[in-house]
Amino acid sequence: MEPADAGAAGGWQAVPDQAVPTRNISSRVIVHVDLDCFYAQVEMISNPELKNKPLGVQQKSFVITCNYEARKLGVKKCMKVKDAKEKCPQLVLVNGEDLTRYREMSYKVTELLGEFTPLVERLGFDENFVDLTQMVEKRLQQLQSDELAAVTVSGHLYNNQSVDLHDTMHVRLLIGSQIAAEMRKAMYNQLGLTGCAGIASNKLLAKLVSGVFKPNQQTVLLPESCQDLILALNHVKEIPGIGYKTAKCLEALGIRSVHDLQTFSSKILEKELGNSLAQHIQKLSFGEDNSSVIPSGQPQSFSEEESFKKCSSEVEAKKKIEELLSILLNRVCQDGRKPHTVRLAIRRSSSKYYSRESRQCPIPCHIIQKLGTGNCDVMTSLVNILMKLFRNMVNVKMPFHLTLLSVCFCNLKALIRAKKGPMDYYLTPSLSTTSHSGKHSFKMKDTYMED
DNA sequence: TGGGGTTAT
DNA sequence: ATAACCC
């Protein structure tokens, strides 16, 4: 999360201080866009009757998210269904184990943001970072001086800090807040989705400030209030980038608050956590984050998983694997690219916390070529491969007890290139065997709307 | 929790 | 292949 490429993605090079009006990494304008209770919103769009009702989205025995109606009535994220019903008997539940519609809507949001600038990085299904630096720069240059003097914030200003229009960073962030408002408006008008946005000079701060006013509001952070924002956190674990494990380590060192981390001896922290992690998180504790917005592009992997109370026979496992695989095959077919690796992961009931074991192997070439043809052999061959991976992990001659199976396709490669004459074009084996339905013999996802 | 994702080691 | 992180 901290590649040392200062600003390469921002469009300028690191230059010596005297040269040109160069800008360092801390004068970027980043927005973090965070959809409100995303799965619940998607469900309410699918079925408008659910609006105005307390709605929870259920996976297995948990309510994993819910709308604001439900929150008002005491339902929390990750609550047991049983507890949620007790708290809120009128709670309406929908099953959210199939992520298809959420995934599709999620990519629509990312694509919409991508129309503003290609610098969009996804974080999960419901969050995106956008680097607005260049867009802001362009708008700034177009502004007349009288307009510049009238620039105002859109949405909230963190801390109600006073704005100095002579401060170029202030002006840039305000323009960023206007673009963020346009983004949220577009999300609502075109997709019917509401969300929050946070505008700041780096990803960490943008993300932290986006949650200050919820739901469906936005907040801009000016540099002078950076310390107030980060010190307002109650625990180091609330800093994105400090997860469960790191927080436990820090706690063992007596570090609980952000201030504790800021003032802790760097030397000792480095000894305990290693140089890289120590330096990284100590920077985070000051609100410093030089990581760039990395455009996500297409996904790196596709997986389907299922958890359950118990799976203790090979036959049972095979059934579940077949089910996961068949869904995945359809997904990967639609993507158009070809996976070159398959992975099987399991969780044993005896496993501590969340740990999984996995085995992976290359997908044989002849199978890759048949992917997407609807060929039944593909399914059979892949199931055989997956069962080998399974038996490599699980001694089926001994009793076992699994609580999760997951199948993953990764190592996705664009297309197989065919050299044919002056126009070398791409084709997928799937389509090379069928008639050419259009001008292009390859399948591409239509990401542009016809207008 | 679930059912996903990512990157670093 | 695992371990950490994110949602």
How does this structure look, described?
This is DNA polymerase iota isoform X1. Helix 4 packs across helix 7 (168-191) and helix 12 packs across helix 13 (275-285). The chain has helices at residues 38-46, 68-72, 81-87, 100-114, 133-142, 145-148, 168-191, 203-210, 226-231, 244-252, 258-263, 266-273, 275-285, 314-335, 365-370, 376-393, 429-432, and strands spanning 30-35, 55-59, 62-66, 79-80, 92-95, 120-123, 127-131, 156-157, 195-200, 218-220, 301-311, 338-348, 357-362, 402-413, 416-418, 425-427. The longest helix is centred in the middle third of the chain and has 24 residues, at 168-191. Helix 8 links the parallel strand 9 (195-200) and strand 10 (218-220). The chain has a 6-stranded mixed β-sheet with strand order 6-7-1-9-10-8. The chain has 451 residues and is of the alpha+beta class. The protein is built from 17 helices and 16 strands. The relative contact order is 0.09. It binds a DNA duplex (9 and 7 nucleotides) through residues 1, 38, 58-64, 77-80, 96-99, 102-103, 122-127, 240-246, 276-277, 296, 299-301, 303-307, 343, 354-360, 404, 406.
Write the layout of secondary structure elements.
Elements: E1 30-35, H1 38-46, E2 55-59, E3 62-66, H2 68-72, E4 79-80, H3 81-87, E5 92-95, H4 100-114, E6 120-123, E7 127-131, H5 133-142, H6 145-148, E8 156-157, H7 168-191, E9 195-200, H8 203-210, E10 218-220, H9 226-231, H10 244-252, H11 258-263, H12 266-273, H13 275-285, E11 301-311, H14 314-335, E12 338-348, E13 357-362, H15 365-370, H16 376-393, E14 402-413, E15 416-418, E16 425-427, H17 429-432
Parallel strand pairs: 2-5, 8-10, 9-10
Antiparallel strand pairs: 1-7, 1-9, 2-3, 3-4, 6-7, 11-14, 12-13, 12-14, 15-16
Helix pairs in contact: 4-7, 5-7, 12-13, 14-16
The structure holds a DNA duplex (9 and 7 nucleotides).
